[in-house]
Amino acid sequence: MIVIFKQKPLEEILGYLASDKSVFLLRCSGCSKVNQVDAESDLKVLKENIKDKGISITGSAIKGLLCIKAMSVLEELTESIGNPSSILVMACGLGVQSIAEATDKVVHPACNSFIDKESLGRGKREDRCLTCGDCVLEFTGGICPLTVCSKGLLNGPCGGSSGNKCEISKEIDCGWIIIYERMKKLGRLKVLMSFLSPKDFRIYKKRR
Amino acid sequence: MYFREVLHSKKFVVTAEIGPVKGTDVREMIEDAELIKDKVDAINVTDLQSSVMRLGSMAVCHLLKDIGIDPILQMTCRDRNRLALQSDLLSAWVLGIRNVLALTGDHPALGDHPQAMPVFDLDSITLLKVIRRLNEGFDMAGNQLKGATDFLPGAVVNPGADTEASHEMQIIKMEKKIEAGARFFQTQGIYDLELFEKFMKRVEGFNTPVLGGVILLKSAGMARFMNKNVAGVFVPESIIKEMEEAKDKVKTSVSIAARLIKGMKELCQGVHIMAIGWEKKIPLVLEEAGL
Question: The domain at A2-136 falls in which architecture?
Fold first, then answer.
């Protein structure tokens, strides 16, 4: 099965960008044909909507397989990206997490991820994105708490970590400490006060 | 006086904790509770602590209620989804339980049924919001209840988190818990009053009562074990030595606990005593602490 992504409501995305002066748009052309359809026009519409809000756009690009190629894509685009306040990524949760891992810039997710039940697999499906259909990477520094925390906690760590390791194993880092460090580096610790709503179990299946 | 009234009086609050038995023989547990019932303002009943299967918190809270104790129902998100959590809250209310402590819960992998499915459908913060919603007369889905609850919701915080990041996250989460409706906090066991004082200064502005945790030490070995295995608990070497050199371990343990409680009187609104099987010693501790 393949992950597909659909753009979040425009209001939500504009909320993410509220304190940004400029943004670079990066769209994944995906591993699935579904994701390739209308890539150009989707990007164009979103760009116009963002411009209307007075946020300048340093540039945009459409690249394939951001989940695997994040590093090389960012390297290739260094010049055209310039120095924006943030990068807005139109991709599945895997793509956003890979880009967030590969840059020190603030990365906003523009999409929610779902499983394309009709498609048969090529493309890499990892456990990092549960295709929950309600992406929260905006609030967690581009690191998914559902998969990085052993308990999938959405609103901060439990009291069980010791030496920044998870209570279930000293081999596993506490996911929420990883998120904290990232948000601190980005100067976005205040965002950790956001309340994240429980997930809709009809949309995704937990695998823990 | 009910716990919620004591909490808003000027009195230094004292709560204790009972861990239900693995099985059905509740006699000793009830005896212990009888022994301390006039000395404490409320008793917490743990919810399958350390993820070990045992008698449930709600049933034991009900038994405590029957003998005139105001129980605090500990409720974790480990074993129940949102349907079961809400239903259990309604059940607890009709059984006369008025206080709930919302917790995440240990991972099942730590307990005696490590094969169990971890639920964590909700987290402690969402659970606090759900309690507030039930108090308002609605369930999580927005359906109206025929008869609301009026719980006093509480939460936990770990002032001894051992790294800077973990400490900061504890404080962020504490603030989120207050926003979600927590009206009091009970803490992990504290042995270092200086660190605790620093913590209390940080959270002063939150204006929510904090009951400092006190765990009775049974031996130097137990202290070392906790230092190694219990998150957020750190027993300083001087206290370990005190236990090691003690002729009468019980007497020394009681003195250490009493000393910590005396120190906490200046720092927070009350104490939460975790006797872990030594419930019978609680009256001695309180006497020596002057409570």
Answer: 3-Layer(aba) Sandwich (3.40)
Cβ-based contacts under 8 A for chains A and B: 96
Domain boundaries, chain A: 2-136
> Over the stretch A22-65, which tens digit does the pLDDT of each residue have?
999 999 987 777 777 788 899 999 999 999 999 999 999 999 88
Report pLDDT digits (tens) over A130-146. Answer: 888 899 999 999 999 99
* Tokens matching residue A80: 């055209």
The greatest distance separating any two alpha carbons of chain A, rounded to the nearest whole angstrom, comes to: 49
CA distance B62 to B274: 20
Identify the residue whose tokens are 């979600």.
B180
pTM recorded for the entire structure: 0.88
**Ranges assigned E (strand) in B190-278:** 210-215, 270-274
Whether residue B262 is contained in a domain is answered as yes
Write the secondary structure of A170-203 as one string of H (helix), E (strand) and C (coil). EEEECHHHHHHHHHHHCCCHHHHHCCCCCCCCCC
Q: Which of B158, B165, B232 sits opposite A180 (nearest CB)?
A: B165
A161/A173 Cα distance (integer angstroms): 9
Number of domains observed in the structure of chain B = 1
Instruction: Calculate the dihedral angle through the C-alpha atoms of A125, A126, A130, A133, rounding to the nearest 10 degrees.
Output: -40
- By C-alpha distance, the chain B residue nearest A161 is B231
Question: Is the Cβ pair B157, A160 closer than 8 Å?
Answer: no
Residues of A with CB under 8 A from a CB of B: 150-164, 167-168, 174, 176-177, 180-181, 184, 189, 192-193, 195, 197-198, 201, 208
Query: Which CATH number covers residue B282?
Result: 3.20.20.220
DSSP B90-119: HHHHHTT--EEEEE----GGGSS-TTSPP-
B1 inside domain: no
The partner residues of B271 in beta bridges, in order of sequence, read B14, B212
Domain span holding position B246: 11-288
Q: Is the ipTM of this complex over 0.85?
A: yes
Asked whether the beta carbons of B50 and B76 are under 8 A apart, the reply is: no
| List of chain B residues whose C-beta atoms are within 8 Å of the C-beta of residue A150 | 107, 118
User: What CA–CA distance (Å, rounded) separates B9 from B4?
Assistant: 9
What residues of B are in the A interface, CB distance below 8 Å? Answer: 82, 104-107, 109-110, 118, 120-126, 129, 156-158, 161-163, 165-166, 168-170, 172-173, 175-176, 179-180, 188, 231-232
Token pair listed for B171: 């404080």
Distance CA B96, CA B242 (A): 43
